[in-house]
Write a structure and sequence with these properties.
With 578 residues, the chain is an alpha+beta fold. It contains 15 helices and 17 strands.
Length: 578
């Protein structure tokens, strides 16, 4: 039975720019068959194609050194290309039965073997005088682990590759030195089939083992949960006692002539529409769109529909669900705009349909020019770009208008009391209640709820590790929602007690400020965890980080706003202001 070995791309932890394997001066099929790829695989730079390495099920190679292909000489340009990739520590990505190739890099404290996804193109040796010389891996020992499912039926459970370097076709010469004096180059291989007790359901476990990461992950998650839950409970208790005391005092004295103070003084101004109400409505609508997309994606992931074996499925799900959730963006944005008595309804819907998706598409399209320039497989083909535009214009935009239509057919939300014509003068605020200070203070706690999990997410993106603990991610997401809601409500209450009735934008920005700390963390991660060198790789990193930060900004900001809105509406209904 034939087993197809696919070549894919080369990736590096030192550069966010992937390259197509068959674009390199390596042993390759001149007329490869391309495996059908989903949208997520194309976006993430996968280019899965057939190779020149024939495999037959359970048939070990007779020889330990068989020639796959040979190249008489390498040109100086090809040598320079390979040297640059080896210097940047690029790893070759192959696949067998959707399993990625892996090579052994060490063992854990529990004597478990640790594997790294992919295998290196070559290695560097620093000789005397600190001169670097580069050697090419031109031999691979292919080890396929399998188990017996039924009689004459097998499951492949692991794909291991051990690279080596040699001169000549006997695989026993000196390592192949990359230089202008390099001689004839042979690409050789051997194949070994090894029976394994690993079950089909557990075949990804070997790829997910990494040195101490599991223990660190568990400890960090539990520690984060304990801290955030304690702080959330403390905030909720203080807030509940303070508001209840104010309301009880007001109810007891409502029949007497009393002097109002604090948040009760601004009840005639608190529902006054904010400045830039169209832009505010658009941001809220975009946040609802991201929220619905995130919840649905995580539910599918927790249920196992987005496992690592379905390459590109997570990226595809995020993109498709974001498009379909345009109906939620149109509905929520229009409801907020209707609440502000906005008169330009069609304009508001148009901006909602195009602003945030257009911002994300614009950043990605701008970065795409640099990926094209570098010849990267991460560059979107024109067909993919046209497909994304078609999804946007033919599905997302009409759904946004559909949601808007549903919103405008309903009565606008009613608020307690009347808004006066002349706004109340706001007294001088203390330094810690200034907008910039209070917003930056409010953003710390939501970021603190997720920054540990953020490390593992960023490692999966930039260090090419598999992320699989979606249950923990969903739990952290719930904690983020609770934390954003509580810190926004607390800061809003303190603001109203200071007789500052301009709470709309502040309620949004208080929790959204956590995105600012997220971007600072991206800078910190870039400095401490990555070794990215060069302007274009750095630009790619920060460009895609900006897209992630934009998602986080509208998500957390919208959670904070809706929490404050229902809180403010509830407390002013309680005092029956008119």
């Amino acid at each position: 039975m034939e087993v197809t070995l696919y070549v894919n791309k080369v990736t590096s932890v030192r550069s966010p720019i992937p390259y197509r394997y068959n674009d390199l001066p390596v042993c390759k099929n001149q007329n490869p068959e391309q495996k059908s790829e989903n949208l997520g695989e194309v976006i993430t730079g996968n280019r899965i194609e057939t190779s020149l390495y024939p495999l037959k099920m359970k048939v070990n190679s007779d020889k330990t050194c068989m020639t796959a292909c040979e190249k008489i000489t390498l040109t100086q340009e090809e040598i320079d290309t390979l040297i640059a990739l080896i210097e940047e520590e690029y790893l070759v990505q192959w696949q067998v039965d959707t399993l990625p190739a892996a090579h052994e890099i060490g063992q854990t404290s529990n004597s478990e073997t640790v594997y790294e996804i992919g295998f290196p193109l070559g290695y560097v040796v620093v000789e005397k005088g600190e001169e670097k010389v580069y050697y090419l891996y031109n031999h691979v020992d292919i080890i396929i682990h399998y188990n017996v499912f039924k009689e004459d039926q097998y499951h492949i459970v692991f794909f291991e590759v051990s690279p080596n370097s040699h001169i000549g076709e006997k695989c026993n010469g000196k390592p192949y030195l990359l230089s202008s004096k390099s001689g004839q180059l042979y690409w050789t291989y051997s194949v070994k089939w090894q029976e394994s007790p690993t079950l089909w359901a557990d075949r990804w476990q070997a790829y997910l083992v990494s040195t101490n990461d599991g223990q660190i992950h568990w400890f960090s998650i539990v520690n984060s949960l304990m801290i955030v839950l304690f702080l959330s409970g403390l905030i909720a208790m203080i807030l509940a006692r303070t508001v209840r005391r104010d309301l009880m005092k007001f109810m007891e004295e409502e029949d007497k002539e009393i002097e109002e103070y604090g948040w009760k003084l601004v009840r005639s101004d608190v529902f006054r529409p904010p400045n830039y109400k169209t832009f505010f409505s658009v941001l809220v609508g975009s946040g609802v769109q991201v929220f619905c997309m995130a919840v649905t994606t995580m539910v599918f992931a927790v249920l196992g529909f987005l496992s690592p074996s379905n390459s590109g499925s997570l990226t595809t799900a995020v993109l498709v669900l974001f498009v379909w959730m345009g109906v939620a963006a149109g509905y929520s944005s229009s409801r907020i705009y209707l609440m502000f008595n906005g008169q330009h309804r069609t304009r508001n819907t148009l901006i909602t349909a195009f602003f945030f998706p257009g911002l994300l598409f614009g950043i990605a399209f701008f970065l795409n020019f640099f990926l094209w320039y570098k010849g990267s497989s991460g560059a979107f083909p024109w067909t993919t770009i046209l497909g994304i535009i078609a999804l946007w214009f033919c599905i997302s935009v009409p759904l946004c208008f559909l949601g808007s239509r549903f919103a405008y057919r309903k009565e606008p939300p009613k608020h307690p009391g009347q808004v006066t014509i002349i706004p109340r003068q706001i007294p001088e605020q203390r330094w810690y209640m200034k907008p910039l200070v209070s917003v930056l203070m409010g953003g710390i706690l939501p970021f603190g709820a997720v920054f540990i999990e953020l490390f593992f997410i960023m490692s999966s993106i930039w260090l090419h590790k598999y992320y699989f603990l979606f249950g923990f991610l969903f739990l952290v997401f719930l904690i983020l929602v609770i934390t954003c809601a509580e810190i926004s409500v607390v800061m809003c209450y303190f603001q109203l007690c200071s007789e500052d009735w301009r709470w709309w934008w502040r309620s949004y920005l208080t929790s959204a400020a956590s995105a600012f700390y997220m971007f600072l963390y991206a800078i910190f991660y870039y400095i401490t965890r990555l070794e990215v060198d060069g302007f274009i790789p750095s630009l790619i990193y920060f460009g895609y980080s900006l897209i992630l930060v934009s998602f986080f900004f509208v998500l957390t900001g919208t959670i904070g706003f809706y929490s404050c809105y229902y809180f403010v509406k509830r407390i002013y209904q309680a005092i029956r202001g008119d």
